[in-house]
Amino acid sequence: MVGADSSAGADAQSVILIVDDDAEIRTLLAEHLASRGYRARTCKDAGEMDAALARETVDLILLDVMMPGEDGLSACRRLADRGGPPVVLLSALGREHDRIKGLETGASHYLAKPCSAREVLATVRAALRSRGGASGAVGEAYVFDAWRIDIAAHELTDPDGVLVQLTDGEFALLRAMVERPRRVLSRDQLLQFARGPDSEAFDRAVDVQVSRLRRKLRCPGDELIRTVKNEGYLFVPHVRRG
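The structure corresponding to this sequence follows.
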């Protein structure tokens, strides 16, 4: 992993947890991120990751897929189910099928090894921006069909007031839609709105997130999110500020 970027990290002091069974990769990533102002922590497996998360609040996890014991995909799915920090998966498996499988577990980004230090840094920044939702105003919220999405609190509540757990990718995608209701949005537009210019623009990543969102909104069909053939998606409900 070479090719360092000379610019300072925009999210200095964020805690980044690096989970990889390769000690050399852990050290290289930790040193590079620390040189950009991040507080880097390292773990060799999922067990050490769980212990680190119990000790300290973590802003982002760089998680290797192929590790002894619990693999990265299983660990990522577990973190997503309980609303854990955003995860960037790292893997020697770089085919589209592998990337999509990783995103389906709840990862916000997927990087194929070998990758440059500059690429890792750009992805970390993009994932933290998505998590922070910097453009959302304090107290900004929207209501649709008795559902409520609170941008500042990063929360979605169902019509009964029950909190619904969303991954960072799902939340960003839903936010992009509720802010632009009843308008057809292409996959490229959704990637841009939800993840910013550093996202990897491969269309099926959006399809995966839309499918997961539909399940969590309890509308697996087109009732809330309509597929517009050859164009993209349209958010059907009327949306109001809430």
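Confidence is low (pLDDT under 50) at residues 1-10, 133-138, 197-203.
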